[in-house]
Write a structure and sequence with these properties.
single chain; mainly alpha; Arc Repressor Mutant, subunit A; 51% helix
Length: 144
C-alpha cells in the first residue's frame, strides 16, 4: 500500500469516488483533463487568483496547457503537456519507491490503524470547527 493513497492531495491518485477520479484522472488522449482553476482553488481553500498565478507559471514552464471550453467563454480546462506528463510520471515513480521503502517494516494492519487514527483526529477537529468550539484549537490562532 502506498502512503500516497492515504490522502486526497494528489488529483491523480486518490481514494475519491469514481466520478471524482474521472474528473481528475490523466488520460492519454487529447481529451485529458485537469480541473479548472476555480475547482482547484475551492478544493484547496485558496483564491482562484492565487491558483491562476500558479497555473500561469506552470504554463510558462511547459507543464500544463489550457483548452477552451466551447460552452463557457471564460473557463478553460488544464491539460498536462508531454513535458508535464513526463515530470509527473517521474515524480510518481519516485514517490512509490520512497513509500515502499518506508513500508518495509510496517504491516498492513499497522498502517490501517494509523490511517484510521489520523482520520479520526481530522474528523474530531472538523467537528469542533463546525460546532464553533475552538477552545481546543486556540493554539492555532496567530495574533499579530
Amino acid at each position: 500500500m502506498s502512503l500516497g493513497r492515504l490522502h486526497n492531495n494528489d488529483p491523480w491518485e486518490t481514494t475519491a469516488s469514481p466520478a471524482r477520479k474521472a474528473s481528475f484522472s490523466p488520460r492519454s488522449s487529447q481529451q485529458e483533463r485537469l480541473p479548472r482553476c476555480r475547482n482547484i482553488a475551492r478544493s484547496l481553500g485558496y483564491s482562484r487568483q492565487a491558483i491562476q498565478r500558479i497555473v500561469d507559471r506552470l504554463t510558462e514552464l511547459d507543464y500544463v496547457d489550457s483548452r477552451e471550453i466551447p460552452d463557457h467563454a471564460r473557463a478553460c480546462l488544464l491539460v498536462l503537456t508531454d513535458h508535464g506528463r513526463e515530470l509527473y510520471e517521474g515524480a510518481k515513480e519516485r514517490r512509490e519507491k520512497w513509500s515502499a521503502s518506508l513500508m518495509r517494516n510496517i504491516s498492513r494492519d499497522q498502517l490501517a490503524v494509523a490511517a484510521d487514527t489520523i482520520r479520526q483526529i481530522r474528523l474530531t477537529i472538523e467537528e469542533e470547527i463546525r460546532a464553533g468550539s475552538s477552545s481546543g484549537l486556540d493554539w492555532l490562532i496567530v495574533e499579530e
